Amino acid sequence: MIRAYTFLMRPTVGQQVALGGMLRDHCGLYNGALQERRDAYRHVSRTSIGYGVQSAQLKDIRAFDPECHGRWSFSSQQATLRRLDKAFAAFFRRVKSGDVPGYPRFRGINWFDTVDFPKDGDGCRWNSTPHERVTRVRFQGVGHVKVNQHRPVVGKVKTVSVKREGKRWYVVLSAEQTRPEPLPATGAAVGIDMGIASFLTTSNGGHIANPRHGRRAAAKLQAAQQKLARFGRVRRDKRTGNHERAVRKVADLHRKVRRQRLDHAHKTALDLVRDHDVIAHEDLKIRNMVKAPKPKPDPEQPGIFLPNGVAAKAGLNRSISDAGWGVFLAILTSKAESAGREVIAVDPRNTSRTCPECGHVSAENRPAQEKFHCVGCGHQAHADVVGALNVLRAGLVRRNANQA
Length: 404
Prior knowledge:
This protein is α+β, with helices and mostly antiparallel strands and 404 residues long.
């Protein structure tokens, strides 16, 4: 079992400069490798260059420019080339499947914020001992950097990564662990229904309110983005510190919303995992749910389009993204695996339109957002509770079928 740990680093001023130089040089390596692939395909009879060829060139590159590339870890540079190779592999996969290809793009220095070290001890060293008051991590070309280790690392550290977020620096570890002891069995099962009005509704009738972190921060974010737009009109070579502070303000607001969303997801998932052995949820295709509606051309007037509800759908898409269903379900699955719980994803179709008493399925069973009134038997209940009940029943049916 692999688990990730993220810790805040406390680099000195000189170490911050060195870390920034490491990101800048790796970014240059990434862009140079991308340019080489583009030129080879366009000008040399559509020749494709892979990771093996570019990795073999690293030795000569490091010898030619020791100040820029020779001072950094060879393995970390190979990891940067592998990142580019994965980007091309994903591009060709999307081309074959008929999706929007998305050709790999050049990275600006502000958009290249991570350097990976594939193995602890090769260009980096995680130095964590229980008897030391200060934990440090060593990077080749940077030195020993202090780390704010707020919890112990369990297992053997496999990979190490450096990540920059604004003015903060983080170290990300992946550790291989033995499977932990499962939590004591509770004998309880629950179905959950994800929504906008309520973030989550359980089959037991419990409701968890939607915190709407993004909506609460919308006014501050709008003001910060407007201020950034005013400074952004100035030519790049004449921008002052005000522009940099405006950029940092927008990034800090986005970071705060993201961390609030993660905190809410972790706490909600932990409560569910502690209290239930089996958790059933809807198998939501969130990427499809937030797609914009297709335009409707007017058949009688060429060049004119009919109303398609794009404004209302845009508001719904923002609410879905603000709720963070995908992040929550990923965290729930991870916590359930560690605790020995079972998570089951079921088909979400008609879960809120099916009567739990008689089984009648009809869109008329849900006359309002929160109201369920079966037109067949007259059963009345909260619509989200009905959906959670149907999700639980479908999950138990699927679980029994798999065990059989």
